[in-house]
Amino acid sequence: MRQPKSAIRRAVVLGPQRHVPIVRTAVESLTSSRRAPIAFVSAGWEERESEDGEFRDHMQRSVLNLEIWGRVERIFAADPELLDAMRLRHDTLRRLQELYRLRLEGLVTAATALLQHGGDPSLVEPETEGAIAMLQALDREHVDRIAAVHVDFEQRFHPGERDSVVAHRRELEHQLASAAVLCIAGGHVGVLLHRLQLFDLLTLWGDRPVVAWSAGAMVLSRRVVLFHQAHSSAQGVVDTEVMENGLGILPGIVPLPHSKKRLDLRNRLSLRLLARRLQPDACILLDDGDRIDWNGAEWHPHRGSRRLNAAGEVLEESR
Amino acid sequence: MSSILQEIEQAATMGPHALERLVAQTTFPRVEGRTVTFLYQGDGQEVTLQHWIHGLPPSLPFRRLRGSSVFVLQVDLPPGSRMEYKLGVMMYGRGALIRDPLNAQSARDPFGANSVVYGEGYRPPEWSTEDPDARPGSIEERTIDSVAFGEKRPIQVYLPARFRRTRRYPLLVVHDGRDYLGFADLQHVLDNLIHRLELPPLVAALIQSPDRMHEYAADDRHARFLVEDLVPQLEAEYPLVKHAGARGLCGASFGAVASLHCAWRNPGVFGRLLLQSGSFVFTEIGDHGRGPVFDPVVAFVNEFRRAPGKPSEQVFLSCGVYESLIYFNRSLVPTLQDTGMAVRLQEANDGHNWENWRDRLRDGLTWLFPGPLWMVYE
Fold first, then answer.
1. Quick one: A211 exposed, middle or buried, by C-beta within 10 A (0-12, 13-18, 19+)?
2. Do B177 and B79 share a structural domain?
3. Residue A214 and residue B371: Cβ atoms within 8 Å?
4. Which residues partner with B348 through β-bridges?
């Protein structure tokens, strides 16, 4: 997978924007220009990508919807070979995720059992550490495996060099030239990630400021972590999976949007496992109104922002 | 004695007006904890409750209150249960089966409708009713040229909302599809679960046999129809994912037998099976006692138990504990598990009926085809 050649100097990560939109405030904190338009990515919403009326109303300034999803659909129509290749890759990724899940189940069960084991800590804790290390090793192995699939895809099909993609990339470069801030909305995290990758959009954007929320924040982090502890029984014992590498421009965090809905915040055991497994990254809980800022060197949480500590406790920023 | 029964008996001694007032003020059947009180008022000489709960006598007599035209019956009904029933009213030597005049709740099936009483705690699932926020899918009429049956077969095809040809969809083949639409609210279920991201957008082929009691009874022609006629023609016409993990078979009763039989005959074609109240009757010794229509079913299930192979990848079974078939479904689970398939059995305090099958669809479908909820972060 191509990692963007970008080192974002300023970024803001937000909670969901549907009910408590604060993206305008975030954008205004990143640019003093009222004239420069906002570049907007809502590809995670697939065929609803263009339904951006609420966002435009809220922003009260010029918005350029980059129509990343729609562009890829048009590319597929013009380039069936690429469509077939991406479908094949999709199938491979899905099968690998299923196989990973099979391996994960046993390790999650073991680590969970050890975390709640009441025996002598001097005996139990090293075993627990070992079980969590095995989980982390599996996550790494899986991510590497997925990355190899992407590399193979790049080498065989050269998506960035295909005429159909190059033309759209040129258009995007032109659109982005005048924009002050790039906003990336949520939606389907896999669709969003893979379509951003196709255009290598973050490289085109360079080091200018970004605001991202929900799946938008997830794809910018180092690893895309899927989670839903409150899911119906469909997923079985596994409630957290690593999907693959993210775009890696927001270091050190695992964004967990909709934590109140998707995580069982009363289940300390499960949160403890989640936090320890994903170390050294910090698990950031992102709900309505939440915001943390990146200044190119470190994170600055706003008042009320929350993260998990290694004990599975939710710590709230009081500054 | 429950309080309502005391009230009824007291009202009966006070005359018809008191009883009419009580009936007007009370919902019957009356559910109090595990006790359900049925009341019938009329000219019948004998009244019975006809039901399909395995383990109880099929006909439960009401008791006539002395000197009145009021009949009462109390039945033990565990929490979360549904019980479908009719009243048998005998008058002047002639009997009639009627729906309970005091009960507005009914459940439909291909033979008409039954009255239905809900045990304490049971609610019809909200995800099976129309949700104005859920964009509806569409249903197309199609014809399959069947070599297996030597004729054209009409089917219906459910396409999810926002269907588009550049996307690929899993395929669910539903036996008795028209009945699932009509009696198990299948379209609302699919629309809602897809809207809620619990189920991926999928294409459902709704098939309806003109002779289900034979064609669904482990008939090789039907298995060929599905694998050699239906699936290839659908894959040529619709953008479908072409691997077993994205193909499912669904059916209830004999439809479940047809599903398992087809998968057994064609391993590796259908990776997901949803088998509801399957008529998986087998024999250890002797005759099955269920009539000749079950002969091919029993022969198949006996053979399947001897040599199950690995027909599929994931199997979700559901069955009501008030069905005689619960024994056969429970017995099948270890055999299925031994094949290496992932297997779940969900039991319900319900009988062999369409609303039982409707109520299990969410858990079954979302386990077999997990939706993108896992992938969507708003």
1. buried
2. no
3. no
4. B320
Is residue B2 scored above 80 in pLDDT?
Answer: no
- Pick from A18, A91, A188: which is nearest to B376 by CB? A188
pLDDT digits (tens, 9 = 90+) for B207-227: 999 999 999 999 999 999 999
Fill in the amino acid letter for B171.
L
Query: With left for phi above 0 and alpha for psi between -120 and 50, is residue A144 left, alpha or beta?
Result: alpha
Q: Where are the beta strands (DSSP E) in chain B?
A: 30-32, 35-41, 46-51, 59-61, 63-64, 70-76, 82-91, 94-98, 106-109, 112-118, 138-146, 151-159, 171-174, 203-206, 247-252, 272-276, 314-320, 342-348, 376-377
B289 and B204 both lie in a single domain:
yes
The pLDDT tens digits for A149-178 are 999 999 999 999 999 999 999 999 999 999
| Nearest residue, CB atoms, A231 vs list B362, B374, B378 | B374
The CATH number covering residue B319 comes to 3.40.50.1820
User: To 5 degrees, how large is the angle CA A20–CA A21–CA A26?
Assistant: 130
d(CA A26, CA A29): 5
The domain total for chain B is: 2
pLDDT at A1 over 50: no
Q: Please indicate, yes or no, whether residues B206 and B322 belong to a single structural domain of this protein.
A: yes
Question: Which domain covers residue B61, as residue numbers?
Answer: 3-118
- Compute φ and ψ for B98, nearest 5 degrees: -130, 160
Residues B234 and B97 both lie in one domain: no
| Separation in Å, CA of B271 to nearest CA in chain A | 13
| pLDDT tens figures, A227-240 | 988 755 555 667 89
* pLDDT, mean over chain A: 93
Q: How confident is the model at residue A253 (pLDDT cuts 50, 70, 90)?
A: very high
A11-76+158-316 maps to CATH 3.40.50.880: yes
**Same-domain status, B167 and B113:** no
Q: How much is the ipTM here?
A: 0.94
Write down which residue in B73, B95, B118 finishes a domain: B118
Check CB contact under 8 Å for B377 and A258: yes
Contact with chain A for residue B163, Cβ under 8 A: no
Final residue in a domain of this structure, among B70, B96, B118: B118
Top residue of B126, B363, B365, B378 to mutate, by most chain A CBs within 10 Å, is B378
Q: What digits encode the pLDDT tens for the residues B48-95? A: 999 999 999 999 999 998 888 899 999 999 999 999 999 999 988 899
The average pLDDT across B299-308 equals 98
B21 touches chain A (CB under 8 A): no
Q: For residues B80 and B193, state if they share a domain.
A: no
* Residue A133, pLDDT above cutoff 80: yes
Enumerate the residues of chain B whose CB falls inside 8 A of the CB of residue A226: 374-375
The answer to whether A317 touches A309, Cβ cutoff 8 Å, is no
Domains of chain A: which residue ranges? 11-76+158-316
Pair (B251, B313) in one structural domain = yes
Residues of B in contact with A233 (CB under 8 A): 363, 366-367
Contact with chain A for residue B164, Cβ under 8 A: yes
